[in-house]
Specification:
The chain is mainly α. A hairpin with a 2-residue loop joins β10 and β11. α41 packs antiparallel against α42 and α42 runs parallel beside α44. It is flat.
Length: 1488
């Protein structure tokens, strides 16, 4: 795998190539590509050239192609001799010329192609190729001439005006300048290339050969020089024009742009007069056209791209653009006129020769010449667009009229507006750029359609206005219509349609003036009275309103339709209007004079009255003031200001001198407010609040007495009295009283909200099926948190409110009045808490009442009946026996939580109205828990719930009889059922006794345990004793329990039965097909019984969901049924599939049997076929009924076989009978042939028997029977022998059939099966050896003194010995069995000795005797006590003390038993005790 090629990250090292399977992102210089063809698979050296394509890729392909052509192809291909070589030389030079020219065009330069001088020089050396070389040189010269002429004689009008690309980013005259700069560069380049040494050499060679092209080429060189001079001259003149063009580019203000035009045209005039090139008509017109285009583009930039997005801005921009274009045109016409005068003056002086300084005077083109086509077209377009913008502005007024309420919309107006919008959208859709001038520009057509539509809309708009005027109720609305449609109404078509309606507006206004005149005459003395004004001021305002009523329409009429005031009707209207204004002004003067005369004298003496008065009936206060005094002051206040500005009479001035109207008004208003607040306080006081404000009330009464007896309106102390009264009553007591009442109201509102909290309940399920306890607990927690979250802030808020009241009332904490007030607050809180708790319990108490009255109540709590572990129980539990919290306990806790809400609130007084309760933090809770109503409700609720819980326990008894469904493992129990050891169900369902399963313990038994090893050995023994008749499987047992082969031969089934470990039970213990049917029917009955239970049962307050238990039990039953039916289905399917495969393979063979060949190979083929059919005959005949019964059972319980297998089963008997007939006939025909070849057959059988005997003898001398041979060496040998025996068994099947046809016994084929059994026994022995070795490896590592559980080791060792001795007799001669027994016997013989040596009664003399025996056993070694005690078990065995055990044990044991009671007194044994004390780290203990 190669990394992807990425040249961007590579270092710039040309010598280091990069290889990749992916194409590169970019190529630095060169890339080589190898592409394998699609049809190619594996590449070879011979085919690689045809199956792999190789190509190159370069970053600059033209450079590479030119280089390859010049350096490779041209030198190689042009060396040919004769006409073919000359032709290749010419063609390759043409290609080289084309490549160089193309490369120059791509790079934007003019490149004169050059031939390969080296190749031509080499070719010129031959006399025969001189003409070809001259021809090539002339071809290149012709190409040069064409390139030069294409540059010299190119028309600038084509390049500049017709848009030939020059890579220019400029517009206008700058394009002309850039053209000449580019032309000068190109000509200079040509001149430099023609001056090169190669070109001069080529021309010199052509001159020598007297070529006809040299003279023409030299003339062309002179033209290049002249063209360079002309280009330099034009550039010199155009450079004078550049500064002004750049200034025009940079100018953005209109005046700055216009100021550039005169100097710009003046420079243009100088160029025209002095430059010969631009004094010609075409060249000057081109320059003038570019200049006008520059002005047009500048004006277009002023307008902007989105013209119609903002009509107001577009209107201004279009006006500006037209002004710029008009200014340029005007300035140009001024200079043109000067030029014409100059030409005329020159003509008069010089006669008919219109020339100055050798230049012919060409007149400037007129304003409508073709050079100004773009500018004139742009100005016409701007005028059209301006008309379009004005029309849009006029019709935009319709949007304001359409956006009013829908009730007043005119459908015709909406239609006009919609049509205009649609017209605009169509116009904008068809015309993207309004200022674009192209041949296919759709503006003209679209604008014509737009104007046509506008004319029709103007007619419709006239109808809309007429209809709108008809709906106007008065003159004001008509004038508003004219104002709203001011733009549209001034269009010619609309004005002609509205002439009559405008005359009616004048008549309506005239009628309005007459109406006002009549109103003035009628209500002159009794005008309408304004509610909040005095009468004189109200009358004057009425006259002022009449004046405004006739003034505004006249001003609006002059603004929107001044032409209506012309003519006779207009003159009459103006006259009536002016006369009415005079009458109104005269009536104003009369009203003012009448008010002055009505003012009473001595009015200022009434200021000496007292300011207050008290009502004797209800003791409420009032303000004492003469109404006329205040009325005069009010009139004067209005009349001396705008819009009247009246001069006040003397009496009023005197009154206002003593008391200003503002002061009197303020004092009166403030005193009225004080009196109102005082009266309000008196009405709100009660016993509690009166105690709080006792001191302030005394001060107020003293101050009011001054106002009743001393203070007058003219008193100098009036303002102080008003200020004190306001401060003491309004500013202090009234605000404090309002603050206290407001906070008490908030406290009451807070307590009121608690009652609403009590209505919140967790039992809000309306389905009648209750809610899960978890959901109810969550709701209860949320409810309690919610209530507590409200009560805690509420308590804090009440506390804050009480603190605020305390701060406001300014009393002491120890004041009796304050304690009385706090006690009042506590009573309010207590009543609110009690009401809240009772309301919270009301949902449950109402249900209790309904239940006691005999009504059915919906359940509140929903529990599930299901399996928890191995028992049926409720979730959540209903009794207190579970570790989890039961439903009654949860509900009781909820009740306590409700009552505990009272702990949240703390009383303000220690006693809270109850002298016995003095603990402040528990006062409310104690009172509420002692409340009889609350306690009774809680007890009643809990009692009813516990009753419902006890009634629910009866539902569990329905599942007690089927606990076996979940207590027993399905698979292991079914396996035991197959072995006939247990039933999955209690037999009480069909039989009296119950059988428990043992599968769970069997599954967890370890492989290295003795029971497992015993099963291996017993399985081998049982395999050896199994009979052929039982293993043949010709009954239900054979159908159900043979190893997956219904159609195997009897001998094959013998081998299958022998290959299974642990299978040796009698056929009678195995269940039959009828037993399967019985078991499945029992499960089916249980399923129907459980499925018939109700999903939900309501028991009082508790709803029990039976669905979880039903679903789980039914699922378990289905699982039990499925394992039975799947077993039958599998066995039936295997049987039918095997039979189908057998018939498909056998029938064609039987049909095409040939009896003409008499060789041994042909006999063996026939015998193989006969053996195959014969082995199946009894199997099929006996098992066909079992398959049929199994299919009926599967169909009965809803697990039928597939349709194809059922059809096969119905047709298979006929096919099988036909096959048996054919095989029987074949045997009859083959038997004579076999008898005839008896010698050959017997020889074949003898050879097979000798092969079997030789293999068995080789096995008996093989190393796999030796103890020292490990499993890595023995396992391959045993596997090899097994494979060979299996091959011989396969061959034996056919030979058995052949020997039967021969009717003689040549070889006993049962010896082959016995040999195979010996191999199986050897495998079991090897496994037993591995297990014993694993156990011994752990024991022998432990020190012998650390072995503490000698009895367990003895039991295990004896069990190992028993397993070895239970092996078959033929294994006793095997070395592995003898050595294995010897190793176990060594451990068994050592264990009693270790037990004796481990006793604490051992004496030093005993140990000395042991050490002497050790020295005898181990020669040349000195063993002391320390080394002896440090030996592990293996070293202890190697000492051989077990051999001396017979002489040592009786004497030592006798001594130990006699001295056991003196163990505590034997101090001389301390050295041994310290050496043998630590026995806690024994590795053996963990194993045992």
């Amino acid at each position: 795998q190669l990394p992807p090629l990425d040249t961007d990250g590579q270092e710039d090292n040309e010598d280091t190539p990069c290889v990749s399977l992916q194409p590169p992102k970019s190529i630095t210089e060169k890339a080589i590509l190898f592409i394998k063809c699609l049809h190619a698979s594996k590449l070879s050296r011979e085919e690689i050239s045809s199956e792999v394509i190789v190509t190159e890729c370069f970053k600059q392909p033209l450079d590479h192609l030119e280089l390859v052509t010049r350096e490779i192809y041209l030198p190689l291909l042009s060396r040919g001799v004769g006409e073919e070589g000359d032709k290749m030389l010419d063609m390759l030079h043409r290609l080289l010329c084309l490549l160089q020219t193309t490369k120059g065009n791509v790079e934007g330069d003019v490149v004169l192609p050059l031939p390969s001088i080296e190749v031509l020089a080499e070719a010129a050396g031959s006399q025969t190729r001189t003409s070809v070389v001259i021809h090539v040189l002339e071809s290149f010269v012709v190409t040069w001439m064409k390139l030069i002429k294409s540059i010299l004689y190119k028309d600038p009008n084509v390049v500049i005006l017709k848009g030939e690309p020059m890579r220019s980013s400029h517009v206008g005259p700058l394009i002309e300048c850039q053209y000449w700069d580019h032309r000068l560069v190109m000509l200079t380049s040509l001149k430099d290339q023609l001056s090169s040494a190669v070109v001069r050499n080529i021309l010199r060679n052509l001159e020598q050969t007297q070529s006809n092209y040299t003279s023409s080429f030299y003339a062309l060189q002179k033209d290049i020089s002249k063209a360079v001079e002309d280009a330099e001259t034009c550039i010199m003149f155009l450079n004078t024009l550049k500064p002004w063009v750049h200034r025009l580019h940079k100018s953005h203000v209109t005046d700055d742009i216009i100021r550039v035009f005169p100097p710009l045209l003046h420079v243009l005039q100088l160029i025209w007069r002095n430059c010969k090139y631009y004094n010609t008509m075409s060249n000057f017109n081109r320059l003038l056209s570019l200049l006008s285009s520059e002005v047009m583009i500048k004006s277009r930039d002023v307008v902007g791209p989105k013209v119609l997005s903002d009509p107001e801005l577009a209107y201004l921009n279009l006006k500006t653009a037209l002004r710029i274009c008009a200014s340029f045109r005007g300035c140009y016409l001024d200079y043109r006129e000067k030029i014409e005068q100059f030409i005329k003056r020159t003509a008069d002086q010089g006669g008919s020769n219109l020339s100055t300084g050798g230049l012919k005077m060409v007149p400037w083109p007129p304003r409508n010449a073709a050079v100004f086509l773009k500018l004139n077209t742009f100005m016409e377009r701007c005028n059209d667009v301006l008309e379009l913008v004005v029309t849009i502005k006029h019709f935009k007024e319709l949007e304001g009229a359409v956006s009013v309420d829908s009730d007043s919309k005119d459908p015709l107006l909406m239609d006009v507006n919609n049509k205009f919008i649609s017209c605009m959208e169509q116009f904008q859709k068809s015309t993207k750029d309004l200022l674009c001038f192209t041949d296919d520009d759709p503006f003209e057509r679209s604008f014509f359609d737009f104007r046509t539509t506008i004319l029709s809309l103007e007619s419709s708009m006239s109808q809309v206005l007429l209809s709108t005027f008809d709906q106007c109720p008065n003159l004001m609305s008509e004038l508003r219509v004219l104002e709203m449609f001011q733009g549209v109404s001034r269009r010619e078509v609309v004005q002609a349609s509205l002439k009559e309606r405008c005359d009616s507006i004048v008549d309506s206004f005239t009628d309005e003036l007459h109406t006002v005149t009549d109103m003035l005459a009628t209500h002159r003395d009794t005008p309408p009275q304004h509610r909040n004004m005095p009468p004189v001021t109200s009358k004057l305002y009425w006259l002022h309103a009449l004046k405004e009523r006739i003034t505004w329409p006249m001003e609006k009429l002059r603004e929107v339709a001044a032409e209506l005031l012309e003519g006779d009707k207009g003159w009459s209207l103006r006259h009536i209007h002016s006369q009415l204004l005079q009458d109104i002004e005269q009536h104003k003067m009369e009203t003012k004079s009448g008010w002055e005369l009505s003012i009473p004298t001595g009015l200022h003496h009434r200021l000496k009255d007292h300011v207050m008065v008290r009502d004797d009936g209800n003791h409420l206060l009032g303000v004492k003031l003469d109404p006329s005094l205040l009325e005069v002051m009010r009139e004067a206040h209005y009349l001396q200001h705008d819009p009247f500005n009246m001069k006040m009479p003397t009496e009023v001035k005197m009154l206002m001198r003593n008391m200003s109207e503002q002061t009197l008004h303020d004092s009166t208003t403030r005193l009225q407010l004080v009196v109102q607040h005082y009266n309000s306080i008196c009405q709100q006081l009660n016993d509690t609040t009166r105690l709080l404000f006792h001191n302030k009330l005394e001060l107020i009464e003293e101050l009011i007495s001054h106002g009743l007896e001393e203070i007058t309106w003219s008193s100098p102390r009036l303002q102080d009295f008003v200020a004190d009264s306001t401060a003491l009553i309004s500013g202090d007591l009234h605000q404090v009283m309002n603050s206290v009442q407001e906070r008490l109201g908030k406290v009451d509102t807070i307590i009121e909200t608690w009652t609403h909290l009590g209505g919140m309940t967790v039992f809000d399920d309306e389905s009648g099926r209750g809610s899960p306890l978890e959901e109810l607990q969550q709701k209860h927690k949320e409810l309690c948190d919610c209530v507590e979250a409200i009560l805690v802030p509420s308590g804090d808020r009440i506390k804050d409110l009480v603190e605020e009241i305390f701060e406001v009332v300014e009393v002491s904490h120890d004041s009796p009045s304050w304690h009385s007030f706090l006690n009042h607050i506590d009573h309010m809180i207590l009543a609110g808490l009690r009401s809240t708790i009772l309301c919270a319990l009301r949902t449950l108490t109402d249900r209790v009442a309904q239940y006691e009255q005999g009504h059915s109540i919906p359940c509140l709590v929903r529990v599930k009946l299901g399996l928890v572990g191995s028992s049926v129980s409720f979730t959540p539990p209903l009794d207190q026996q579970s570790a989890l919290e039961s439903v009654p306990e949860v509900v009781r806790r909820w009740m306590d939580d409700y009552l505990a809400l009272a702990k949240v609130m703390k009383p303000f007084t220690p006693t809270c109205g109850s002298p016995s309760k003095v603990r402040k933090e528990t006062c409310f809770f104690s009172i509420i828990t002692d409340d009889a109503v609350v306690t009774a409700n809680v007890a009643k609720i809990c009692a009813h719930l516990e009753t419902s819980a006890r009634q629910c326990q009866s539902l569990k008894r329905r599942f007690n009889e089927i606990t076996f469904l979940w207590d027993q493992d399905v698979k292991s129990t079914f396996d035991e059922f197959l072995h006939g050891t247990s039933l999955p169900r209690p037999r009480s369902l069909s039989r009296p006794e119950t059988v428990k399963t043992r599968s769970s313990s069997a599954q967890q038994r370890p492989r290295n345990s003795p029971s497992y090893s015993q099963s291996v050995i017993s399985g081998v023994s049982r395999r050896l004793s199994t009979s052929v008749s039982t293993a043949a499987g010709l009954t239900d047992y054979g159908f159900l329990y043979t190893s997956g082969s219904v159609l195997g031969t009897p001998s094959m089934m013998i081998r299958s039965s022998r290959s299974r470990v642990g299978e040796g039970e009698d056929e009678a213990k195995r269940p039959s097909i009828d037993d399967f049917d019985s078991e499945i029917s029992i499960f089916k009955g249980i399923h129907d019984q459980i499925d018939g239970l109700d999903d939900f049962i309501s028991v009082g307050w508790i709803g029990v969901s039976m669905k979880p238990a039903k679903q789980l039990v039914c699922a378990l039953i289905t699982k039990w049924i499925y394992i039975y039916t799947s077993f039958l289905n599998k066995q039936t399917t295997v049987a039918l599939d095997s039979l189908s495969k057998f018939l498909e393979e056998t029938e064609p063979v039987v049909v095409h049997l040939s009896y003409n060949e008499h060789s041994m190979e042909s006999f063996m083929k026939l015998m193989k076929m006969f053996n195959k059919v014969g082995s199946q005959q009894k199997v099929i005949d006996y098992k066909f009924g079992a398959v049929h019964r199994a299919m009926l059972i599967l169909e009965k319980y809803g697990y039928p076989l597939s349709h194809e297998r059922v059809q096969f089963f119905h047709h298979v008997p006929q096919r099988w009978n036909n096959l048996k007939k054919k095989v029987s006939l074949a045997k009859q025909r083959v038997s004579p042939h076999v008898q005839a070849q008896a010698e050959v057959v017997m020889e074949e059988l003898e050879q097979f028997g000798k092969q079997c005997v030789d293999l068995h003898e080789d096995f008996l001398i093989s190393p796999c029977l030796n103890y020292e041979c490990n499993d890595e060496q023995a396992s391959p040998l045993i596997s090899a022998y097994c494979s060979k025996v299996k091959e011989l068994k396969t061959t034996a099947q056919d030979l058995i059939e052949l020997q039967d046809l021969l009717e003689e016994t040549v070889f006993n084929f049962s010896h082959l099966s016995e040999f195979y059994d010996e191999l199986l026994v050897l495998q079991a022995v090897r496994e037993l050896k591995a297990n014993i070795a694993e156990s011994h490896s752990e024991w022998l590592k432990v020190k012998w003194k650390d072995i503490i559980n000698i009895a367990s080791l003895k039991v295990l060792s004896e069990l190992h010995l028993e397993q070895i001795q239970s092996l078959p007799e033929f294994t006793m001669d095997w070395d592995i069995c003898q050595r294995l027994e010897q190793s176990v016997m060594e451990i068994v013989s050592c264990l009693p000795l270790i037990k004796v040596l481990s006793m604490t009664a051992m004496r030093p003399r005993h140990w000395k005797q042991v050490l002497r025996l050790c020295s005898k056993s181990v020669s040349r070694l000195s063993i002391n006590a320390t080394s002896f005690l440090d030996m592990n078990f293996q070293q202890f065995i190697d000492l051989g003390l077990q051999c001396e055990c017979s002489a040592l044990s009786p004497r030592v044991v006798t001594v130990l038993l006699c001295t056991k009671c003196l163990t505590a007194k034997c101090c001389d044994m301390s050295w041994l005790h310290s050496a043998t004390a630590d026995k806690t780290s024994s590795t053996l203990r963990t194993y045992v």
